[in-house]
User: Fold Periplasmic chaperone PpiD from Pseudoalteromonas undina.
Amino acid sequence: MLEKIREGSQGPVAKVILGAVILSFALAGIGSYLGQTTEQPVAEVNGIKISQTEFSRAFQNERSRLEQQFGEYFTQIAADPTYMAQIRQGVIDRLVQQELQSQLAAELGLRVSDESVRKTILELPYFKIGDKFNNDRYLQVIRQMNFQPDAFREYLRDDMTRSQLVSAVAGTDFALPNELKSAIALQQQTRSIDYLVIDKQAMQADVEVTEQEVADYYELNAGQFLSPELISVNYIELNADDIDVASVSEDDVKAYYEQSKAQYVEPEKRRVSHILIDNSEDDDAAKAKAESLLAQLNAGADFAELAETSSDDIVSAEMGGDLEWIERDVMEPAFEDAAFALQNKGDYSDVVASEFGYHIIKLTDLQTQQVKPFDEVKADLRAELEQAEKVDAFYEKQTEMGALAFEISDRLDDAAEVAGVEVQSTSLLALSALPEPLNNPAVVTALSSVELLEDKVNSEVIELGNEHVIVVRVNEHQPAATKALSEVSEQIKTRLMNEKASDLAKEKARTLFAQVKEGKSLNDVAAEQSLNVRQESQLTRESFAVSPAIVTQVFKMAHPSDAAVYDMVNLNNGDAAIVALKAVNDAPVSDNIEPQMKQNITMAQAQKNYTVFIESLKQQAELNVPKAAQVAE
Assistant:
């Protein structure tokens, strides 16, 4: 079994699954390190506790993903406690599933090698600049996620190990040729049917709806007859990008360049290599090893060779310890001080202690500080100056506009005049149908407030974005209200007539179906009732010529033997039908099955088996999972 698992983990499905794991990790982020906690675990799996810390990290990942997906509207979505409870429960379920997978992987002895982890790190696009792995970028990214290199490698190893297990179940699944043929035969199978439909419209002549029934329905279902809340809005919008300012002179740009020249200094860069000795297990032994390596360097040993054979930084070791270019305030302080103290290319440091262990650092290249010339940056400087003037004008206008909108709160004309914009208006619209920029959540919230709806005052200045604001007022408001009975009586009468007609159609179908079951032919029943028997000799599962309810039921019916098999079906539109299944027609299947069809069937089978596999793990495990509502965010 282990051999099959390891072989399966190298296949394309395994790579796809691993890619999905890495992608979700990269998009969602890791969240803040929360430390140890004395709180109760969110779940317990075979005695292993899933802590609030793990849950908080995973929950923040999910929140980040949803915020990226829904943007500013996530605030409104997150206000629904039922929705957020479902999200929390989903996070707990995934953590439990991951723990079950990790435990089984450990039991089977699955483990991803250091070489595989290193190769994955080097191939991940998030650690590359251009098409090349960049160690600075790698260290920067994992530190932003509050990981040290060792911890990140173990995190990645755990995910890759779980992926081995997933690929062993899903990636090694296959369908035998006879299974493929059977599945395709079922998909392409057709059925021959006769059927008649009892149309509810034909029954309406026998239906009567009284005014009292209409009134009673109206009283019991008044909530169905609400007219939507409508609102008409006046507003003024101010955006810095729309403000016209005088052009900036060449002299102004040059003066600004001289004032801000420090911003255009390209700082000193150094390219360094290092040898790292991990001290997490035995500090004294690590220090002694580092000093021994330094002695070998002093005796003439090659730095790159020592790094490749002895460094515990498995990523840079492959490249002779190379960390590429570094700048100030990027690396760990002790490392950085030692690296920038080296004077000449080829110099290397003494043993340097840092939070990661002991280093020996070599300076391999040096780029001195440089200043970008004026001609290279003047276009950017001009744009900055023009934007600065627009922003200054924007905030001046915003202040005056906000003050007047507050002082003269019953109209917007004065505020619009000082802002240099026009008052804009909408017709009566539902709150959910407001156009831009009024469909902003903050604007909708303001328009729903008591002050604007009842007092008819101007809103405060509402920020829509950077240097982009709006002030709104309600011009006209029509609250949601129950429509009068006179407005909806015909609608109710039609609905009641349809319901009664549908009941009569179903009752008639049951009566006729009983006659068919007693031996009367479907044609005779149809002739007596002046109904038409319809035929489908090659009905497929994807047929659109017949009601979906009939298609679904026909492919559930037992195969006929000597006589047709009958059933009654209630249709989605309120009609009823009686169906006679006369024959099941098996489709011939070629030995040359299309690759895409093979893949679709195999993947469907793999997904089904994987779901069964996870459920089996849960049934065999000792699980203690509280309700999501009891779990803190």
